Design the sequence.
């Protein structure tokens, strides 16, 4: 009788262990499954804000395009041609694809100290995410196919053009929105300040920035 | 541990086995309960369902808005192109617009290039400490895009979202957004461009060191293959030009 119990206790201990192991296993596989259901309410709220912003921009552009389509139809019907609409479209596309020099309000970020090409690429990504419409590093305009590389002597090259620090990254867009996106708690500048401890980052709002057009990449 | 069970006569072993099933179940329950309590905060329980529903509804709305926008762009293009009164100046302007639309990523493109797949490690047992290194992050995507442009890419898309001058990769929690669209792994990155130069850029041991190391050690999915006749769709998002004015 005593011996049987001992066996049962062993079995129970092993079974508990197995049960624990099974759940841990299930759990460690769950970490891989990415689902909105697993996000925290605060992450979800941020995602929703981003989605709403994107959708608002789409709705605004749809509104403008409907007007353009109807203007173009009227012009054609009146025999006037669509020159004005086409010119407006051309200017807009030139700005969007970094083909024309631009001016406007925005922010300026001065980076003084150690920095590298991946961080610069992340900074440009963050500026675009905050709605920046045109970006330049020192005097090199960043375009749709721009890439960032490091050089042996600690320079950062944009499209193959080596740039010496301190670097000034200028971005045209809503000064308030872009400024807050960069400097908020937990934002990219805050993270940089922890990673590049001896580097100084100065973010300022600007009322008038002048950015050059993109020049073909140096290869 | 198993070898620690002393040998038993069959009948007595049966007694122990009777307990085995309930004991396993009990172990499961205890651990599950403990895990669940540790991880689900009050807030998650109360707010997650409506928030997830709202996010999904917005994404569905976005897909429709993008389709509407693409249709309107085609419509405007047709009106301008078919304008019977088109003068020489208008025709020239139209050519420049067509060129710019292609540069900006507003037209679809097909051609040879490379196909890249980036994915979380799957079916690989990784310790909790290593989970972070076994999944893909927004910065992995930006590093891959940077390498592709460096390799001379002409056009590229991530899960059918065309990368243009305003494109960004954004990460919240474990969810990634590209062009403001929700995405989850695997990421299929189609790159059109000179195949040898592109493969050379990705094979360069100095490029993407972190991703390659995580592929070899933690089982992160990362594969670059030569691909012919790949398709990259047109950008279907908004062209935001509100603050920047042409000089």
Sequence:
């Amino acid at each position: 009788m005593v011996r049987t119990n001992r066996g049962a206790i062993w079995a129970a201990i092993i079974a508990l262990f197995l049960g624990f192991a099974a759940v841990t296993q299930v759990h460690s596989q769950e970490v891989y499954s990415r689902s909105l259901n697993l996000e925290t309410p605060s992450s979800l709220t941020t995602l929703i804000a981003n989605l709403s912003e994107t959708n608002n921009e789409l709705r605004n552009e749809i509104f403008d395009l409907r007007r353009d389509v109807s203007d173009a139809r009227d012009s054609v019907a009146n025999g006037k041609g669509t020159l004005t609409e086409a010119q407006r479209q051309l200017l807009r596309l030139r700005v969007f694809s970094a083909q024309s020099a631009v001016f406007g309000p925005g922010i300026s970020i001065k980076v003084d100290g150690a920095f590298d090409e991946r961080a610069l690429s992340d900074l440009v990504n963050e500026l675009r995410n905050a709605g920046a419409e045109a970006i330049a590093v020192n005097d090199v305009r960043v375009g749709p196919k721009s890439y960032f590389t490091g050089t042996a002597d600690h320079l950062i090259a944009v499209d193959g053009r080596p740039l010496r620090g301190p670097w000034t990254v200028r971005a045209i867009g809503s000064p308030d929105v872009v400024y807050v996106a960069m400097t908020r708690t937990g934002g990219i500048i805050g993270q940089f300040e922890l990673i590049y401890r001896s580097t100084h980052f100065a973010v300022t709002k600007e009322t008038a920035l002048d950015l050059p057009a993109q020049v073909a990449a140096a290869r | 541990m198993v070898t620690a069970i002393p040998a038993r006569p069959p009948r007595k072993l049966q007694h122990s086995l009777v307990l085995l099933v309930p004991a396993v179940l009990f172990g499961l329950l205890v651990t599950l309960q403990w895990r669940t309590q540790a991880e689900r905060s009050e807030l998650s329980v109360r707010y997650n369902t409506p928030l997830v529903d709202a996010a999904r509804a917005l994404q569905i709305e976005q897909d429709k808005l993008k389709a509407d926008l693409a249709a309107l762009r085609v419509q405007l293009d047709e009106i301008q192109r078919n304008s019977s009164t088109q003068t020489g100046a208008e025709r020239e302007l139209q050519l420049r617009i067509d060129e710019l639309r292609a540069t900006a990523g507003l037209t679809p493109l097909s051609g040879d290039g490379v196909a890249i797949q980036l994915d979380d490690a799957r079916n690989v047992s990784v310790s909790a400490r290593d989970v972070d290194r076994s999944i893909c992050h927004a910065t992995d995507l930006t590093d891959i895009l940077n390498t592709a442009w460096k390799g001379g890419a002409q056009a590229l898309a991530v899960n059918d979202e065309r990368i243009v001058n305003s494109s960004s990769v954004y990460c919240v929690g474990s969810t990634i957004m590209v062009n403001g669209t929700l995405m989850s792994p695997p990421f299929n990155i189609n790159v059109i461009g000179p195949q040898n130069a592109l493969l050379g850029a990705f094979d360069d041991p100095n490029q993407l060191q972190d991703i390659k190391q995580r592929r070899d050690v933690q089982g992160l999915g990362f594969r670059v293959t030569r691909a012919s006749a790949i398709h990259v769709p047109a950008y279907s998002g908004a062209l935001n030009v509100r603050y920047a004015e042409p000089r």
